[in-house]
Design goal:
Elements lengths: L2 E5 L2 E5 L8 H8 L18 E4 L2 E4 L12 E3 L12 H9 L8 H14 L5 H7 L11 H16 L1
Parallel strand pairs: 1-5
Antiparallel strand pairs: 1-2, 3-4, 3-5
Helix pairs in contact: 2-5
This protein binds FE2/S2 (inorganic) cluster (2 copies).
EC number: 1.2.7.4
GO molecular function: 2 iron, 2 sulfur cluster binding; anaerobic carbon-monoxide dehydrogenase activity; metal ion binding
Pfam families: Fer2, Fer2_2
Length: about 160
């Protein structure tokens, strides 16, 4: 089947989508957007997190057909052209990336938290990121990055 979906602000079509194919697969393999990662394909790790109609969702748990007519924003859509989103900049500056497999999902989740919560507490950050697993960093640098991005947002 063909799926029509708006991705990062552009109307896109994914062809030859099979029934039960995940949105994650369609994004990566049919639409040329490999930023969202497939680490568990079971909704456990958050590495595939994208915005779906403005809400973070595990794209491995969404059938591509369910995205018909909807809006998806992936990690590739966070930056403004060549300019990184402040959350991305903070992850770079804080060294919050090791292997990077968890990073796209964490960026989308952190981006959402900062957009809807002014000056989030550590508890709020931890709760927001609870569905995003990282095997490498020990989370401290990730927390630092989210704190930094949130603090910068407060100042603008
Ligand atoms: S790949 Fe989707 S939650 Fe792990
Ligand atoms: S940086 Fe490797 S899983 Fe998070």
């Amino acid at each position: 089947m063909r799926v029509n979906v708006t991705v990062n602000g552009e109307p896109r079509q994914a062809d030859d989508v099979w029934e039960g194919e995940s949105l994650l697969y369609a994004l990566r393999e049919r639409l040329g957007l490999p930023g969202s990662k497939n680490a568990c394909e079971q909704g456990e790790c958050g590495s595939c997190t994208v915005y779906l109609d403005g809400q973070p969702a595990c794209s491995c748990l969404v059938a591509a057909g369910q995205a018909e007519g909807r809006e998806v924003r992936t990690v590739e859509g966070l930056a403004d052209g060549e300019r990184l989103d402040p959350v991305q900049e903070a992850f770079v500056e804080c060294g919050a990336v090791q292997c990077g497999f968890c990073t796209p999902g964490l960026l989308v989740t952190a981006h959402d938290l900062i957009a809807r919560t002014a000056d989030p507490s550590d508890a709020e950050i931890r709760e927001a990121l609870a569905g995003n697993l990282c095997r490498c960093t020990g989370y401290e640098t990730i927390l630092d990055a989210v704190r930094l991005a949130a603090a910068r947002k407060e100042r603008v």
